[in-house]
């Protein structure tokens, strides 16, 4: 989704992009969105006693996928990567995504080679898509769990359709299920590629919640009660399984449901910070802390084609958004520091897949092999 920057010009430009992109996506126009009402869609995730509990299938998948690690402070952590996928995403996007995660390899316990694709749990959103995800699981070693909702269309989700807003109900439930099982959760949208292992970086930070955000110069090592006053991007967000972080995600899910029941549009992206900070403001940073990741290290396409340049930018100011001349590469000094590149604001899922492959080729051409700049981490048995 396109995240907006602070200036009026940037907001106008981003809005126009969404309007034009929605008009030009032929695959989206060819698939009718669901006719289910948003209140009914929201309520389908809840029981009389609250948000539905994790299924046995998900519990088993998380237990098999979790990766035990030693963090930078000498503490044992168990991490699971989590994502969600629809029928349209399984056409091509997830294959590119998982192939890339497979290239982020590391030495596991007892010296056995391991990779990140083997530690991701994918909640399958659409009926009839389980077989396609199972094929990817056989190929890459990931774990697929049925989380199907009959309301969702099998096509590309229209921007601002009920399907689009329904993603938030699936996302919050997925994150909450992981946290309630006592594992750290790195939630990833599938429209991104990685160039080096992000886990050592995340494990060197003490905040309960870490999220990517717009091009802006700020720190991410000090736990804070609030995020910087800029837009976040919840396609890359990391949670520790603390009691208050879990409570905050439940609060976020409830916010989305309440918005839908009022007949309004429950967008997960724009409600995340408010829902989390409503809890952190009540309990203080001692019980719930957060930080926004350095945007030059974790860039995304809404910033522009070459991410974020913070060189020489004063602290707490917006960074520069370098452009990319057609036929040329991004600045090697910027690319060398990238952990990933995320592709919101880039068209439908097949367009995103093209860009993901293009950025992998550019990185190989300019910097070198994927994962070559990853630092070691200590995997526990």
TrEMBL record:
<dbReference type="Pfam" id="PF03407">
    <property type="entry name" value="Nucleotid_trans"/>
</dbReference>
<dbReference type="InterPro" id="IPR029044">
    <property type="entry name" value="Nucleotide-diphossugar_trans"/>
</dbReference>
<keyword id="KW-0333">Golgi apparatus</keyword>
<feature type="domain" description="Nucleotide-diphospho-sugar transferase">
    <location>
        <begin position="117"/>
        <end position="291"/>
    </location>
</feature>
<feature type="signal peptide">
    <location>
        <begin position="1"/>
        <end position="30"/>
    </location>
</feature>
<comment type="similarity">
    <text>Belongs to the glycosyltransferase 77 family.</text>
</comment>
<dbReference type="InterPro" id="IPR052636">
    <property type="entry name" value="UDP-D-xylose:L-fucose_XylT"/>
</dbReference>
<keyword id="KW-0732">Signal</keyword>
<protein>
    <recommendedName>
        <fullName>Glycosyltransferase</fullName>
        <ecNumber>2.4.2.-</ecNumber>
    </recommendedName>
</protein>
<dbReference type="GO" id="GO:0000139">
    <property type="term" value="C:Golgi membrane"/>
</dbReference>
<keyword id="KW-0735">Signal-anchor</keyword>
<keyword id="KW-0328">Glycosyltransferase</keyword>
<dbReference type="GO" id="GO:0071555">
    <property type="term" value="P:cell wall organization"/>
</dbReference>
<keyword id="KW-0808">Transferase</keyword>
<dbReference type="GO" id="GO:0016757">
    <property type="term" value="F:glycosyltransferase activity"/>
</dbReference>
<keyword id="KW-0812">Transmembrane</keyword>
<keyword id="KW-0961">Cell wall biogenesis/degradation</keyword>
<dbReference type="InterPro" id="IPR005069">
    <property type="entry name" value="Nucl-diP-sugar_transferase"/>
</dbReference>
């Amino acid at each position: 989704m396109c995240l907006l920057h602070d200036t009026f010009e940037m907001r106008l430009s981003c809005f126009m992009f969404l309007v034009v992109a929605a008009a030009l996506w032929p695959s989206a126009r060819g698939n009718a969105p669901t006719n289910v009402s948003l209140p009914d869609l929201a309520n389908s995730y809840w029981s009389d006693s609250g948000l539905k509990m994790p299924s046995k299938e998900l519990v088993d998948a998380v237990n098999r996928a979790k990766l035990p690690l030693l963090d930078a402070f000498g503490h044992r952590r168990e991490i699971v990567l989590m994502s969600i996928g629809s029928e349209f995403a399984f056409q091509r996007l997830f294959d590119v995504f998982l192939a890339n995660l497979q290239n982020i390899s590391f030495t596991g316990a007892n010296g056995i080679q391991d990779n990140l694709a083997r530690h991701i749990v994918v909640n399958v959103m659409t009926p009839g898509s389980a077989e396609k995800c199972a094929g990817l699981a056989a190929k890459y070693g990931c774990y697929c769990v049925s989380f199907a909702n009959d309301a969702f269309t099998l096509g590309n989700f229209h921007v601002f359709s009920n399907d689009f807003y329904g993603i938030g109900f699936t996302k919050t439930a997925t994150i909450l299920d992981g946290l309630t099982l006592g594992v750290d959760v790195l939630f990833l949208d599938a429209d991104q590629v990685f160039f080096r292992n992000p886990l050592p970086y995340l494990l060197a930070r003490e905040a309960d919640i870490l999220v990517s955000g717009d091009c802006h110069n700020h720190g991410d090592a000090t736990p804070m009660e609030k995020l910087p006053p800029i837009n976040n991007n919840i396609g890359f967000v990391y949670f520790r399984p603390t009691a208050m972080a879990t409570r905050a995600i439940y609060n976020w899910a409830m916010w989305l449901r309440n918005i839908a029941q009022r007949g309004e549009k429950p967008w997960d992206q724009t409600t995340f910070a408010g829902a989390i900070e409503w809890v952190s403001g009540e309990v203080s940073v001692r019980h719930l802390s957060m930080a926004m990741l350095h945007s030059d290290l974790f860039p995304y396409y809404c910033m522009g084609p070459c991410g974020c340049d913070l060189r020489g930018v004063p602290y707490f100011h917006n960074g520069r958004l370098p452009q990319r001349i057609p036929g040329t590469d991004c600045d090697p000094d910027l690319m060398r520091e990238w952990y990933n590149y995320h592709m919101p604001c880039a068209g439908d899922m097949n367009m995103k897949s093209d860009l993901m492959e293009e950025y992998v080729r550019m990185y190989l051409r300019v910097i070198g092999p994927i994962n070559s700049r990853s630092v070691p981490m200590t995997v526990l048995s």
